[in-house]
Amino acid sequence: MKEYVTVDGKELRLGYTTGSCAAAASKAAAIMLLTGKEVQLIRLLTPKGLELELEVEDITTEKDAVSCAIRKDSGDDPDVTHGALVYSRVSFTDEPGIHIDGGIGVGRVTKPGLDQPVGNAAINSTPRRMIRENLEEVMEMTSYEGGLEVMISIPKGVELAKKTFNPRLGIEGGISVIGTTGIVEPMSEKALTDTIMVELRQKRELGYEYALLTPGNYGSEFIRDGLGLDPEWAVQTSNFIGDSIDMCVKLGFKGALLIGHIGKLVKIAGNMMNTHSKYGDCRMEILGSAAAAFGVKPETAEYILGCAACDEAVRVLREEGIDRDTLDLVSSRIEHNLDSRAFKACEEGQEFETGAIMFSKEYGLLGETGRAQELLGRIITQYGK
């Protein structure tokens, strides 16, 4: 790619995801299978709206199938998959439609709660949609009305997976094919925290005394769909929860309400104020120990420790009838740690209130801290709604 972003005064080159590689390789293989003409370069429009022109590598033509690869380019973003070849083998099948699966180096989902159901190849929803849409385009262009089978493989994926959290999450045998925009955008931590500071300062200068914070898009969606509020009120903090609280205190806000998915907020119960996975993952340990406090059976606690996603753990807690008690305990620990962080940031005599609302996409509202509703009311009032 020849697209760049400026980060900390430096130009950093964008890259493209494993999902884009899989879709581009599939499109190229389908064209060669259905037209009989070799493809050296393939164009792909990403969900972000950027068009890629990618070199097609290692073409293999069989009687009823074509295989080829696209080399992953992460740009200037550090990524273990950079340089890996992502293969797609497209073949004819008697079954109508487009059928997508994973081969060597593509992980297989073994635990519930992930983007794909147990048993499926770890090819996430957006890459699957990209593959399907591009193959439908090729099929329409060539007037082909039969079925196609797509097999995605990443030969280096077995080794690369050992450098990721995939085995812990319940993805075995390889890496995931991921990407929601199709593009990899390098960005430094300083650039991210600077952006958060700018947004918070703008809201403070507009006279707002209470900050609404959310880690990302899931939180913004819940603010809109779950609470019926304008997500533009919120400042997205990414993983920088602690830094954002510090900024709010420094800028003179009187309080902050954090609204986030349980997968992020449960880490705060363990006093992880930067929730990025590279700093650790204590989600199931926290949920398991909290459940144990209410007498859950050892084998159930052990099962929770092995869950891949928080929604699966919540399902188990509900079956045991202790979800409310457990999540209330987690909420109280979140409140304690947010308050402690704010207290340390405050100057002598300064007061600052914190609150949090925790949800999941499957179960909706899961828990809230003691001052959450009061802070929410103040935020609604200050925006005149």
Keywords:
385 residues, alpha/beta, CbiD-like, Beta-carbonic Anhydrase, Chain A, 2 domains, 5-stranded mixed beta sheet, 20 strands, 40% helix
Structural commentary:
The longest helix is centred in the C-terminal third of the chain and has 23 residues, at 323-345. With 385 residues, the protein is α/β, with parallel strands linked by helices. It has two domains: 4-184, CbiD-like (2-Layer Sandwich), CATH 3.30.2110.10; 189-382, Beta-carbonic Anhydrase, Chain A (3-Layer(aba) Sandwich). The two termini are 45 Å apart. The protein has helices spanning 18-35, 125-142, 157-160, 166-169, 189-205, 217-226, 241-251, 262-269, 283-292, 298-305, 310-320, 323-345, 372-382; strands spanning 4-7, 10-13, 15-16, 41-45, 51-55, 57-61, 65-71, 85-93, 97-102, 105-106, 108-109, 147-153, 171-172, 174-175, 183-184, 210-214, 234-236, 255-261, 353-360, 364-368. The radius of gyration is 24 Å and the shape is globular. The strands form seven sheets. The chain has a five-stranded mixed beta sheet, covered by helices on one side. It has 13 helices and 20 strands. Strand 16 (210-214), helix 6 (217-226) and strand 17 form a beta-alpha-beta unit.
